Amino acid sequence: MSQNGSLERSVPQQRGPSNGEEVGEGSSRLRASPKRDHKPENYDDLQLEFSPLVFSALEQYMPHHMLSIARDDKAQYMRNILHRYLPESERIRILKHKEYRQKIILNYPPLHKEIYCMDAENFFSPSFLRAIKENTEASFKSIMAEPCGGIYTFEMLQPQFCEMLVSEVEHFERWVRETKFRIMRPNTMNKYGVVLDDFGMETMLDRLMNDFIRPISQVFFPEIGGSSLDSHHGFVVEYGINRDVELGFHVDDAEVSLNICLGKQFSGGELFFRGVRCDEHINSETQPEEIFDYSHVPGHAILHCGRHRHGARPTTSGNRINLLLWCRSSTFRELKKYQRDFSSWCGECRRRKKEKEHLTVNAIKEELLKRGIKSAS
């Protein structure tokens, strides 16, 4: 995600094999495709620097000959892969963040303990629950609108849950002020809001991602890791009087982003979308068909690719509070390093590919026409 309110330009992608069976470094490399019929180990009881879900998801991409080795050896193999892209300074940061979270959880007294554990019947709207229980593409499409390509909107949360979550966030912020505890904000673009994972909601949000968002994502976002989501960043942002007013044009640090309006009374604050882009084309022009604006409705969600460029217009009155869940796939991020063509999901890659194909076809037609004229003469 851009940290200064403008779209970022990333360093060029590493290049490597794009269509072989395996990718990675060393003699034992990750497979390019997961072994779907393999049941991964459970890593919840191990002391790991990363979420246990990351290891369970990554295991399906391990070489065949390593799938039957001891669990601890598998974990070590995957840790080495993850550490390859994680400098020492980042590992220290992760350790300090764990200590920071533990300090909050040991001292903060929750207001609504019932929302810290997943209670689907009381959290979600009946229509959303029915669609998830059926777990089919047809059931998901029955509750969703797709007002613009790759953007899905639907009713999701019950009003009572929205109210409790808002009051829990307000309670947490009062505790922060009273104890003068310095907290980390969701990102450097938002000066207000809280990270829900930091004060005890990580497990509940893991369930939200695994049991409710991943089934949808593997249907609608398979090309960007929708079927292998394994970690998340869950937070609440606040806009309005004495809060953030707007949000600059940016992309999310996520494969799939869930954005749900919790309330309260407000006007303005519309989201504006301007097309999906890879790193190379992040600042390319917007095509007319990519322009879309979305007005928030409390309890309703919008689901989109994290690389879908977007921003939020000013909230002109009242206060708007939104729950965001950035869902990530470590396997997709690993495999993306070796890909060359992102035309399956980047709008500009797709446009340039079609343009190149069009030029090629025209060149062939012109050459055939020339040959026809010579033959006739």
Automatic annotation (TrEMBL):
Its cofactor is L-ascorbate. PROSITE patterns: FE2OG_OXY. InterPro entries: Oxoglu/Fe-dep_dioxygenase_dom (IPR005123), Pro_4_hyd_alph (IPR006620). Residues 1-17 have a biased composition (Polar residues). The keyword Transferase does not apply. Residues 230-329 form the Fe2OG dioxygenase domain. GO terms for molecular function: dioxygenase activity; iron ion binding; L-ascorbic acid binding; oxidoreductase activity, acting on paired donors, with incorporation or reduction of molecular oxygen. Keywords: Dioxygenase, Iron, Metal-binding, Oxidoreductase. Signal peptide: none annotated. The keyword Membrane does not apply. Pfam families: OGFOD2-like. Residues 1-42 are annotated as: Disordered. PANTHER family: 2-OXOGLUTARATE AND IRON-DEPENDENT OXYGENASE DOMAIN-CONTAINING PROTEIN 2, 2OG-FE(II) OXYGENASE FAMILY OXIDOREDUCTASE. This is Fe2OG dioxygenase domain-containing protein. It comes from Canavalia gladiata.
